[in-house]
Amino acid sequence: MYNEKIYDLISSKISKEELEIRESKNGDVQIPELITLEVTSLYHAFEILALGLHNRVTGSTMANA
Question: Which of 11, 25, 59, 62 is spaced 20 to 30 A from 44 at the CA atom?
Answer without folding.
Answer: 59
